[in-house]
Structures are given as C-alpha cells and as structure tokens.
Protein 1
Amino acid sequence: MGLQNSQGSTVFLQIANGKIVRQFSQPTDKSVSRVNKVGREVHEEFYDSLVGTIKDIKVRESEYGKSWQVIIGDDNGTYTLDIKYSSGYAVSFLKALPNADLSQPVALTPKLNIDGDKKQSVLFISQNGKGLKHYWTKDNPRDLPPMKKIKVKGVETWDDTDRMEYLENYIKDNILQNTKPVVQDNNDDDIPF
C-alpha cells in the first residue's frame, strides 16, 4: 500500500503534471532536481498512484492559495496529499468521493491529458480494482450548483465559487463523519474521537 517507502512519519505529497510528487531537501537516488518558481532547487520523486485508507480531508489556506489536504493512512505511515482547491484533480476526486467506502483502502491516480493548448487534469479513485463513478454527473447534477460565466476586467470566464463551496460543505457534512476513528469505552459504546 501507499508509496512503500515511509516508516511511520507523515509524508507530504502534491500532484503535478499527472503524477504524485514527493519533494526532498537533498537529492535521492530516485529524485529529479529542478529550480522552482521562486528560484529554489528542489528534488522530487514521482509516483503513479497512492493507496491507503482516507483518514481525513481538510481545506487549508496558505501563501499559495487554498487547497485540499487528503490524509491517507496505511501500514507504513501517513501521507498528506495536497490538491489545489478548484483544480480538475480536486473536482474529479470530490465528485467520486461519495461513492467510496471510506472504511476500505482506495487508490488515487492522477492523470493529465493535453490536447493542443487545453489541459484536462483528473484524479481517479478506485477501490477493489474498480474505478468509482462520479456521484454528480452532467446528466444527473443533483443539487450541485452549475458554474457561472462572469466578466472579470472585461474578459468572460467561468466562476466555480458556488460549486466549490457546495462541495466543501458536502464533504464536511456528509463524508468526514465517516473518516473519524472510533474507540471503545468501558461500556462498549462506540465513541468518535
């Protein structure tokens, strides 16, 4: 399960160019080095997927903007996968999440398709060897708000604010209670942490 090279500590991961990325301060035998946008040399290892049980999902704000942090656990440790808040990776992950059994491991596999100047990023969730379908679809959007076309500085663009707020609230209200660990007290009643 997992990335298979962690020993009990939290490993921080990102998604870039259709791969799961782990950064290191020093080169490793598997890392590729590059200079990032702020001029700092980074050393990265790339993975096709991450497998484990979803333990928690958080929204985080930082100097780089808003992101989702998906906490995954396995026998080797804990992984925190950082996903840009309204990216194609995040939206595809969130749309499939209600169809996942969060008591069982999932495989998260990012893909990036490039067609000319168009990029489509997707984060697939599979479980027990089968890809999970989206809960909200074009044919059955349920109550997911549509994106709105707005003008920003005279240029028309698509605004997903209502959609992302809805997904954030849906995850908080309907999914997260299924990820909390349960302990037994002396009365044998299940008590969430």
Note: The chain is about 10% helix and 50% strand.
Protein 2
Amino acid sequence: MRCSDFSRVRPNLFTQSNVHHAMKNTLTCLCVLVLATVISAQAAISGRWRGQTTNGTEIILDLTATETALTGTMVRNLDSVIITDGKASKNTFTFKATINDQTEGFTGEVNGDEIKVWLDRQGPERAAILKRMKK
C-alpha cells in the first residue's frame, strides 16, 4: 500500500470539525478542573474555627471563601472584628483585622480540620492552632 492509498482507507482525522470538537472538549475539561480547585479551596477554608494564641488568648474565626476572596469575622477575647482585604488560594489565606485601633495583617494555612494563623509581623513560628468547630 502506498502512502497516497492510506488517505482513502482512513479519513483525515484533522478536519476542521474534529479539531474544533477536540478544542471544545479540552476547554470544558480545563474549566471543570479550575472550578473543582476553587470549590475545594472554598470548602477547605470556609467554616468556624476555634483555638488559642501562643500566649493563651482565645480566637474564633468565622470564614467564608468565595473564589479568591475571603470574608468573615474574628473574635478575640470576646471582641468581634470584621475581616477585610481577605484573599484565599487553595489551602492558604490572608486578611486584615483591626485590633486595639491598629490594622494587622494575618496569614493562615489550612490542613484538614486544623488551621495555623499568625500575625504577619510575628511570623509562622508564633502561629495559633485553630480547630474546625462542628456545626
């Protein structure tokens, strides 16, 4: 069989229609993977968390992650403050909160039903460990 005969036996796989369908399927799969990653981040971070700082101060975080944004409240020694400038990505997050009339930056990492959260100026060595509160 000659090469020219092969095209008669097997039709051209690279027709415009086939390429279009392949690209459409690839884009659909990519969108599903991105959406799954976003939903996973939302589920991992969203919820109520309770724990103590290294000096014994009780902290409760009530967090809601949507796409890459993070909102919620932080309760510290029974004082509730609104979280601002919150950002979420996979298993990490950042936000700001005003404590004693001073805006502080916070960073956190989620690991299952536990998070570590720390003041940016103190670093992760001084992280508070918080556990997910059951509903």
Note: Residues 1-135 form a domain with the Lipocalin fold (CATH 2.40.128).
Protein 3
Amino acid sequence: MPVDPLFEAASFAARAHKHQLRKDGQTPYAAHPFRVCLVVQHVFGIRDPQVLMAALLHDTIEDTATDFDDILERFGPEVAKWVAALTKDMRMEEAPRELAYHEALTTAGWQVVVCKLADIYDNLNDSHLLPPEKLPKTFRRSAEYLEALRPILTPESRPAFEVVLAKLSALRNEAGL
C-alpha cells in the first residue's frame, strides 16, 4: 500500500483543521479524522489507500476553507467525489440539509458508506463527552443515518454497518435510552 498519499492526506487534514477543537473544547479536531481513518482500517478492515484518504479528508470541505477543487487537485477525482458526498451543505437549513445529505450518501458508493459508518462510530465513541441531554439527539441522528444506509449495503459495507449498529445499541442501553 503506498503511504505517501496517505501521509499527505493526514497532513492536509491536520492543517485544514488546525484551529478547531472537538466538542469537549480540548481535543484538537484533527484527532477525529485520524480516528475515522483508523476505524476504517483497523475496525472495519478496509485497506484501500483511497478510501483511507477519503476518511482522513471527510470533514475538510464541510468544516474548513477547503473546497472540492482543493481535494480534486491534490488527491484526484475519486477521493474528491467521495469527500464531496460526505459533505453537508452548511448553507442550507438543518432539515433540508439532512435530507440532501441522506440522498447523497445513499447514491454514493460503498467507499462513502464505509467512511460515514466510521464517522458515526467515532462520534458515538465521543458521546460520553456530551451532556446527558444531548445524547438522545446524537443517538437518534446516528440511527437515522444507519436506516438511510441499510438499503444500500454491499458486501464491503455490511460488516462495518453491523459493528456500528451494535455500538449504538450498546450505548443506548448504557444510557437507558
């Protein structure tokens, strides 16, 4: 597996997210895309370097000054297309934005599905940092994404889906929800 493009994607994501923090107000945001990439590879067993690059870059268009052309120029059309599919249009109001995002996810390939599942998995892992009153929304949103993805699962994405579904179920049970 070539590592130079992965190193470049990791560096790019770190630079793009350099002034951002996670919801705990302490963790550098770049930890999230790094963990998403680790989940794709080590939890889901996907070793395709382009999928790993998309995992590293999945929030760059949505949450930073990065645009599609930046990703296209540095990482190629396939990675750029996947990152775009993983990007919510933050100019829209929440309800139509989520609807458009679900549509983009369900019309994308298994590579996007796996990256989104890893994103959900990592966000669920961080849910213990949220105030208890935010847990129901976090769990509901995760369940909505899983239900949107369920009909389009492929042999490559189904095992990852099952891991995330089990994680969500366990966390809901722990929280009594």
Note: The chain has a mean pLDDT of 94.
Protein 4
Amino acid sequence: MKTSKNMIGAAGEYYVCAELCRQNILALPTPKNNPIFDLLASDPEGKKTVAIQVKTMSLENNQGWRLGVDMENDRNNPNLFIVLVNMQKDGTNDYYIFQHDDFSARVRGSYRNYLETPKKNGDPRKEVNFRWFDFSCFNEADKNRKNNWSILGF
C-alpha cells in the first residue's frame, strides 16, 4: 500500500524533531496547516528559538521535493529555516538544512533555469503552478548542507 502524502509529511516532521532532540535541542511540532513553518526549536535555556518548515521526499519519489509557488518568496526572517528530508530505504534519513531565504533564492534560480531551457523539440517551456527541488539542482554548497545542523545556529 502506498503511504499518503500527509503521512509522509508528518513522518518527516517527527524525524526532524527526533534528530534535533538527539542534539539537545527542544523541537516541537506546531498545529497543522500553519502556512509558514511546521516546527519550533529552542535551546534548553530558551535563549534561541527558530522556526522550521519541513519538506519530505518519500521512498517512492524519484523526482525531488515538490513545492508550492510561494516557496520562491523571501520571508526576511533570519530565524526561519527549511529542512529537506530525504527518506532512505535503509531507514535512515538525510537532512538538508537551509536558511529560508537562501532556499527561496535557490528555488527561484532553479525554476528560472528550467524555463530558460527549451524542451527537447526546441519549444519553450510553459509556466507551471508548482516548484520543485531535486538533486540535479544541488550545487556544492547545497551538498555541504547535508546533516549540517549547525546552520540553525545552536
């Protein structure tokens, strides 16, 4: 049976919470349907708190992380982060941590490159109402984000 998108998303959020707690960072999910972030994370003293949006790619997904068009929008909030979760068949996960506006710039650039690259038959590409990010979009800096929780600033 195929796992629902809601279950994959929830699993990703809990995986991120668990990983942060392993590192002595308190992480809590927010109520569902919060439009900007899914988790709040704080150091044990409550001196630093960040908000995290989680995007999870399931085992069956070979196309990358599917994102809303609004993922291109900067939020101008240095305490807002994105964690891309890549579930692995062996039960482990890889996490790619971005400051939100760094990620939105990467998504904008990747989408612009997509639009500027003609189809195989030479026709121009058309606008689509979603965005994506996959490993073909990764640059060296993106690869260095893998499991690099220090990006959160704790």
Note: The chain has three helices and seven strands.
